[in-house]
C-alpha cells in the first residue's frame, strides 16, 4: 500500500466531570471512522484524544465526594476511556491534562507568552458560570443565563492574567479569509467572523485565583492556568512540543494537525483562541477545524436535568457495538443536528442492518452451500446484468472517498449500502433458485454467486472503517481478506474455487420494537432508583410526648406460635402469639410484602399489648407488632423488631 504521508487527527478532550453520554461519544466514533478510512487510503495516521481534568467544577465535585481532585478525575477519566474503548475506537494516544509532561509544558508556554508581553496581570469582574468556567457580560447572557449552558451566573471579581487577543485578531481575520477550508462547515465560519472577530475581540482571562485545582503559574503560584490555555495546548504537548526548546521528531512530523474534530458549541475556542495562541507561539495553524452538529435525544439536547441522557453502554447492551456505530455515523447530518430515539435505532437495525446487509450475506452464503457445497467458482458465463452490478461495485470506492474527503461520513456509508442494495437487487434479477432447477444453467448459477461473493467482499472491505467488527465477520464468512486500497475499484478478485463458511452467522437479528421499549422502560426505572439516596428515613416528629403518656404503652416480648396469610388479603399476616399470660394473643400485621409466614414461626418479637382491639378483614387484632421502616432506592423497606430468643414471652420492655 502506498504511503500518502501523515494525517494528524484530534478530538476535543472530554471534561472529567462525569460519565459521557452518547452525544459526547458520537464525536470519538466519528473521528475513529475518519482515522480508519485515512489508514485504509494509505495515510500514516496519528489519532489523539483524551481528557480535560482541571477546573473549579471538578474541585467542587471532588469536595462533595470527600476525595481529592486527582482521585476524582482519575476515576472519571477511567470511565471515559472505558466508554471510548467500548466503541472500538482506534486512537493512538490518550492524553490527560494531569499528565506531568503536559503540566510542565503549559507552565513553560504561559511564562513564554508572559515574557513576550502577550500576557499581563489585571482584574476580572463579570458574571461567572461555574459549570462552563466562563465570565460573561450582561449583554452576552440569554434570558439572564449563561449563553453556552443555560445555567445561572453570579457576579465575580478576581485578580487574573489576561491574553492580548486584539493584538492578533487582524492577522487571524486575514488568515480565515485566505483559507476558506479552515473552518467547516461554512456556517460556523460565518458565525465566528460576524459574531466575534469583526465586532472586535476582548482580551481573554487565562488564569484564576478563586480555586486551586489547576496548573500553577510558576512565577505567581496563587494563580492557576485557566482552562483554555491548559486544555487547548494538549494538541501540541501530546505529540512532543517543547516550548523554548527543541521539540520532538514526532512533533516535527505531525504538526500542523490535519483536522481538529470538535462539537459546534466549542468552535469559538478552537477557531479564535487556539489559532491566536499558536500565532503567539510562532507555530502554524491546523489545516482544518470541523464543528460537528449535536446528537439530540427526542429532539432536545441531552442533559441530566432533562432526564433524557442515553449512555453508549446502554445502547451497546441493547443493539451491539456496530449497530450503534452505524446509527451514529449514518444518521448524523453534515451540518444539522441529528436525532436519536430508541425506536429509530430499532428501525435502522431492522431495515438497514438486518434486511439489507445481514440478509444479503446470509442468503449468499446459504445458496453457495446449498448449490455448490460452499465452493465459489467463476465460470465466465456472464450476462448484461452482471456488468451493471460490477460497475456499481467498481465505482463505490471513489464515491466513498469523495464523500469522506469533505467529511460527509453519513453520505459515504450510504454509498456502501447502495452497493449492498444493488447486490440484493441482483439476486432478484438473476433468481438463483430458478437457475438451480436446470442442470444446464449450473455454470450460470455459479457465476451469479461468484459475482455476489466478490462484490460483497469489496463492500465489506470499505465497511471496515465504519463497522470494523461486522466487516471482519462478513469477510470471515466469505473466507476472504480485506482488499488493499489499490484493489478496491476492481471486481473479479475473489479467488475462484474459494469456499465460504458452512455455518452462516446471522449478523443482525430483527428486533421487536415493543420488546425493546419494555427493556428500555425497565432500565430507565432502575436508573432512576439508582439516582435516589440509598437510604431514606422518616424525619423525626417535632411534637413532644410527656413521659407519663409514654409509660402507658405496654411493650412486651411475644413469641410466634403460628403465622399464616389472611385469605383475600395481599398484605395481612395473622399471628398467634404467646404473650406470657397463658392465653394466645392474635395480632394482624400488613407485612406480607416483606415476610413469608413460615419464616417467622418461633421468632421473638416486640408488641404493644394494651391497644384497644380492632377489626381487620373481619378478624380481631389485639395489639401491634413493632417494626422499623425506611426507604431504600425509592422502595419502602420494613424490618420486624426481633429480640434475643432467650427473653421469655411476656417480658416487659422498659
Describe this structure in words.
- With 654 residues, this protein is α/β, with parallel strands linked by helices.
- The strands form eight sheets. Strands 1, 2, 3, 4, 8, 12 and 13 form a seven-stranded parallel sheet that branches. Strands 19, 20, 21, 22, 25 and 28 form a six-stranded antiparallel sheet that branches.
- It contains 20 helices and 28 strands.
- The chain is flat.
- A hairpin with a 6-residue loop joins strand 20 (573-578) and strand 21 (585-589).
- Among the domains are: 341-499, Isoleucyl-tRNA Synthetase, Domain 1 (Orthogonal Bundle), CATH 1.10.730; 547-653, Nucleic acid-binding proteins (OB fold (Dihydrolipoamide Acetyltransferase, E2P), Beta Barrel), CATH 2.40.50.
- The mean pLDDT is 93.
- Helix 12 packs across helix 15, helix 15 (409-430) packs antiparallel against helix 17 and helix 17 packs antiparallel against helix 18.
Pick out its properties:
654 residues; Isoleucyl-tRNA Synthetase, Domain 1; OB fold (Dihydrolipoamide Acetyltransferase, E2P); seven-stranded parallel beta sheet; 28 strands; 19% strand
Q: Which architecture of the domain at 341-499 does the CATH hierarchy give at level 2?
A: Orthogonal Bundle
- Structural class, from helix and strand content? alpha/beta
Q: Quick one: CATH superfamily of the domain at 341-499? A: Isoleucyl-tRNA Synthetase, Domain 1
- Counted by DSSP, the helix tally is 20
Q: What is the CATH class of the domain at 341-499?
A: Mainly Alpha
Q: Span from first to last CA?
A: 89 Å
Taking all residues together, what is the mean pLDDT? 93
Q: Which parts are unreliable, with pLDDT below 50 for 5 consecutive residues or more? A: none
Percent strand: 15-25%
Question: How many β-strands, per DSSP?
Answer: 28
* C-alpha geometry: flat
| Rg estimate, integer Å | 34 Å
Amino acid at each position: 500500500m502506498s504511503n500518502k504521508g501523515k494525517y494528524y487527527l484530534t478530538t476535543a478532550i472530554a471534561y472529567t466531570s462525569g460519565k459521557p453520554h452518547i452525544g459526547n461519544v458520537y464525536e470519538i466514533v466519528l473521528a475513529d471512522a475518519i482515522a480508519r478510512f485515512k489508514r485504509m487510503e494509505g495515510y500514516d495516521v496519528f489519532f489523539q484524544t483524551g481528557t480535560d481534568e482541571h477546573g473549579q467544577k471538578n474541585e467542587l465535585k471532588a469536595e462533595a465526594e470527600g476525595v481529592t481532585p486527582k482521585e476524582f478525575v482519575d476515576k472519571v477519566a477511567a470511565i471515559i476511556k472505558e466508554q471510548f474503548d467500548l466503541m472500538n475506537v482506534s486512537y493512538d494516544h490518550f492524553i490527560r491534562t494531569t499528565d506531568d509532561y503536559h503540566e510542565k509544558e503549559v507552565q513553560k508556554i504561559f511564562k513564554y507568552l508572559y515574557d513576550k508581553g502577550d500576557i499581563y496581570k489585571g482584574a476580572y469582574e463579570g458574571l461567572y458560570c461555574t459549570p462552563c468556567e466562563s465570565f460573561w457580560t450582561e449583554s452576552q447572557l440569554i434570558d439572564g443565563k449563561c449563553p453556552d449552558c443555560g445555567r445561572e451566573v453570579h457576579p465575580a471579581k478576581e485578580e487574573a492574567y489576561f491574553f492580548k487577543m486584539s493584538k492578533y485578531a487582524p492577522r487571524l481575520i486575514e488568515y480565515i479569509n485566505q483559507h476558506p477550508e479552515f473552518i467547516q462547515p461554512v456556517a460556523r465560519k460565518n458565525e465566528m467572523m460576524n459574531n466575534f472577530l469583526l465586532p472586535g475581540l476582548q482580551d481573554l482571562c487565562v488564569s484564576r485565583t478563586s480555586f486551586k485545582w489547576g496548573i500553577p503559574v510558576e512565577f505567581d503560584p496563587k494563580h492557576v492556568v485557566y482552562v483554555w490555555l491548559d486544555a487547548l495546548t494538549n494538541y501540541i504537548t501530546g505529540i512532543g512540543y517543547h516550548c523554548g526548546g527543541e521539540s520532538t521528531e514526532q512533533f516535527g512530523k505531525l504538526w500542523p494537525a490535519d483536522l481538529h474534530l470538535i462539537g459546534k458549541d466549542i468552535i469559538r475556542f478552537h477557531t479564535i483562541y487556539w489559532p491566536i495562541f499558536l500565532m503567539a507561539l510562532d507555530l502554524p495553524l491546523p489545516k482544518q477545524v470541523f464543528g460537528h452538529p449535536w446528537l439530540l435525544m427526542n429532539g432536545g439536547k441531552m442533559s441530566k436535568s432533562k432526564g433524557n441522557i442515553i449512555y453508549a453502554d446502554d445502547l451497546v447492551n441493547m443493539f451491539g457495538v456496530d449497530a450503534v456505530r452505524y446509527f451514529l455515523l449514518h444518521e448524523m447530518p453534515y451540518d444539522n443536528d441529528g436525532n436519536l430515539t430508541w425506536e429509530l435505532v430499532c428501525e435502522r437495525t431492522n431495515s438497514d442492518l438486518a434486511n439489507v446487509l445481514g440478509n444479503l450475506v446470509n442468503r449468499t452464503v446459504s445458496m453457495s452451500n446449498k448449490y455448490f457445497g460452499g465452493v465459489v467458482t467463476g465460470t465466465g458465463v456472464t450476462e448484461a446484468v452482471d456488468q451493471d452490478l460490477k460497475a456499481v461495485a467498481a465505482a463505490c470506492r471513489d464515491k466513498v472517498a469523495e464523500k469522506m474527503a469533505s467529511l460527509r461520513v453519513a453520505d459515504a456509508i450510504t454509498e456502501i449500502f447502495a452497493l449492498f442494495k444493488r447486490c440484493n437487487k441482483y439476486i432478484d434479477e438473476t433468481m438463483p433458485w430458478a437457475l438451480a432447477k436446470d442442470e444446464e444453467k449450473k455454470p450460470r448459477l455459479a457465476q451469479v454467486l461468484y459475482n455476489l461473493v466478490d462484490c460483497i467482499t469489496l463492500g465489506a472491505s470499505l465497511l471496515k472503517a465504519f463497522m470494523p467488527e461486522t466487516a471482519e465477520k462478513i469477510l470471515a464468512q466469505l473466507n476472504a481478506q480485506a482488499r488493499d486500497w489499490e484493489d478496491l475499484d476492481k471486481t473479479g478478485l475473489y479467488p475462484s474455487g474459494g469456499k465460504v463458511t458452512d455455518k452462516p452467522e446471522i449478523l443482525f437479528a430483527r428486533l421487536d420494537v415493543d420488546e425493546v421499549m419494555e427493556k428500555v422502560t425497565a432500565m430507565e426505572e432502575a436508573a432512576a432508583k439508582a439516582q435516589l439516596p440509598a437510604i431514606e428515613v422518616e424525619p423525626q416528629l417535632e411534637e413532644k410526648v410527656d413521659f407519663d403518656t409514654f409509660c402507658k404503652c405496654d411493650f412486651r416480648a411475644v413469641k410466634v406460635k403460628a403465622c399464616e396469610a389472611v385469605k383475600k388479603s395481599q398484605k395481612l399476616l395473622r399471628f398467634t402469639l404467646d404473650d406470657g399470660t397463658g392465653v394466645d394473643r392474635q395480632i394482624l400485621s400488613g407485612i406480607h410484602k416483606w415476610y413469608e409466614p413460615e419464616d417467622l414461626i418461633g421468632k421473638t418479637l416486640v408488641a404493644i399489648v394494651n391497644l384497644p382491639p380492632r377489626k381487620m378483614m373481619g378478624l380481631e387484632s389485639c395489639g401491634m407488632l413493632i417494626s422499623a421502616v425506611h426507604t431504600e432506592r425509592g422502595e419502602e423497606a420494613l424490618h420486624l423488631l426481633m429480640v434475643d430468643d432467650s427473653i421469655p414471652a411476656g417480658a416487659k420492655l422498659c
